[in-house]
Amino acid sequence: MGNIAHQDHKLSHHIDWGAWVFRFTVLFVLGIILAPIVIVVYSSFSGKTHMSWPFTDLTFRWYREVLERPIWVRAFINSLIIGLLTSVISLAIATPAAFAVSRRRQRETMFIRSFIGSPLLVPPVITGISLLMVLSRAGLRGTYLAIAIGHTLWAAPLVFITMNAVFERYNPIYVAAAKDLGANALQAFFKVTLPIVKSGLISATFLGFVVSTQEFIIALFLYAPSTITLPVEIYTAIRYELSPGISAISVYMIGIVGAALFVIDRVIGIERIGFTGKG
Amino acid sequence: MSGYFPNLRKRYGYLAPTVFILIFFAAFFIYPTFAMVKISFHKSLLYGDYERIFTLENYIKFFTDPFYLSVLGRSFLLGIAVMIVTIPLGYVLAYALWVSEGLQRKVLYFCVLFPLFTNLVIRLYGWRIIFSPTGPINVTLQSLGVINEPLKLIFTFPAVVIGLFSECAPYYVLIVFSVLSLINRRYVDAAIDLGASRFRTFIEVIWPLTLPGVVSGGFLTFIWSFGAFATPAILGAPVHWTTASHAERQILSIRDWPFGTAIGFILLVLVLIFLYIQNRLIPKVRTYRTV
After folding, report:
1. What pLDDT digit, counting tens, does each position of A240-275 carry?
2. How far is CA A27 from CA A132, A253, B82, B122, B244, in A?
3. Which of A60, A134, B88, B150 is deepest in the core (most CB within 10 A)?
4. Residue-wise pLDDT tens digits, B181-207
5. CB B110, CB B280: distance < 8 Å
6. How far apart, in Å, are the Cα atoms of A2 and each of A167, A252, B189, B207?
7. Residue B213: closest CA among chain A residues belongs to which residue?
8. Are the beta carbons of A36 and B127 closer than 8 angstroms?
9. B93–A30 C-beta distance less than 8 A
């Protein structure tokens, strides 16, 4: 932004209150957003079994102990399986759609883009309830597939938005050039298109996976004891107790998210995630 | 069919690859909604069973019971409260993101995105610890001698609002940021060159241009808070429970599916109404094209 040059000589030895209030507010908001995560991480090192501040006797023991409890391991594996399923399904259905939609200008495709993005606007409780009704009747309640379907409803729109942005940057001239040089449609796709959009695909896959492993509300409606996901297990656990063990599990989950975000940042740059203005 | 409607095929043929996602949504998003509505018109029997006859009794039960009407009112209040907190505070963060560059911007971005992807339950768990009688706030205040007994922070209305704020803020920040980044910096430079103070530039140039984003983000925050169920359930007392919390309770705990789905449908209709209001509002606040 431009310099307020003409005011400098008046304000040069005054404190810029406006800027300090601004900075303080930013830190305050960031603090509120990050506080719960920081506390959870910190509490996972507490030596005592109950939760009281300040956390003393710092130890890593919980991280080892929870790995030995079967319920956590089972929940963790379930989340991984469902995350993978969700990732694959969302990628499969959203990528072709994103490609198709990217071929036209945004104004023409507004309706279909809004439709595909619509599940994100509906409170997950409603999606959860309605899926429960339908999938119970189909006898699918409690299966991996059921939860994956529910998660895909949330992940596919996000994958769509990401891949749509990627495809809009991609120029069909490369494919035309390849065809001029003798490639057929399939060869052009695999040798030209795919490498260019590869990084977008990787990010979208991670996105779908992370969204699924963190999703909890829909999973709460659809789970069965054998397919319980990690977030649901944590949810039921914290109703009865607050313990550092739960914090340790949470840190494992946070670690997964952090790693995925790091990869995404390396691959396409973290600024690319985010909604293109919905207005 | 293409013989009869050649124009249709030419105009919309390019959309063919969207068929997968459309079928998926039709089967698992649209159809289940109808199924849910259908069940809400059935009569509930004991032990989680229900009779498939048509009845309006679930809806009558909801709208004539002052308890449920107050739940609606309280959900509404909660949505408004969170919105009031989020709009200015989130805007500040989005603005900071906009004017920052390089590493600072990456760090800020990371700080905003990270909670977004982190599990909601983990964050709520964190707030439980923070607000608990033996948590950081109470212990610090006590050791400083400000108070003698722990304050009741958990299971209060402000706790739910703060929890929902931390949940909605990242989304709101991203939306406002994406609108801010569309602003042509030349407008701002022009205003400053013409002698406007920072404050005035903001009020008369930046703020009006970002109003559609603020409205979008604000409504999103409201809708999500109104329809939230986990945060009020974990951070609030039962009296703070929203419509959505009660829907979940009816379905999963009490197993009264007809009544629970009725609540769900009422919630859905209200959400659609809010979305419609938002759609009508946005063109009215759009001032100029920003690029």
Report:
1. 777 788 888 888 888 887 887 777 777 766 555 544
2. 42, 25, 19, 22, 32
3. A134
4. 888 788 888 888 888 787 777 887 888
5. no
6. 35, 45, 5, 17
7. A279
8. yes
9. yes
Minimum distance, in Å, between the CA of residue A180 and any CA atom of chain B: 22
| Element spanning B43, H or E | strand B43-44
The alpha carbon dihedral of B179, B185, B190, B191 has a sign of positive
A220 within 8 A of A232, measured Cβ to Cβ: yes
Taking each helix axis as running N to C, give the angle between helix A244-268 and helix A230-238, from 0 to 180 degrees, rounded to the nearest 10. 150
What CATH number was assigned to the domain covering residues B60-285? 1.10.3720.10
Distance from CA of B4 to the nearest CA of A (A): 23
Q: Give residue A272's pLDDT.
A: 53
**Is A51 near chain B, with CB under 8 Å?**
yes
The DSSP symbol for A53 reads S
Place of tokens 């140039």: B205
What is residue B288's predicted lDDT score, i.e. its pLDDT?
A: 57
For chains A and B, what is the number of CB pairs under 8 angstroms?
290
Q: List pLDDT tens digits, range B38-80.
A: 888 888 776 667 777 787 888 888 888 888 888 888 899 999 9
Q: What is the interface pTM, i.e. ipTM, of the complex?
A: 0.79
Nearest chain B Cα to A278, which residue? B216
B-chain residues near A24 (CB < 8 A)? none
Element (H, E) at B138: helix B136-143
- Tell me the backbone φ, ψ of residue A254, rounded to 5 degrees: -60, -35
Angstrom distance (rounded) from CA B213 to CA B176: 5
- In angstroms, the CA B256 to CA B47 distance is 8
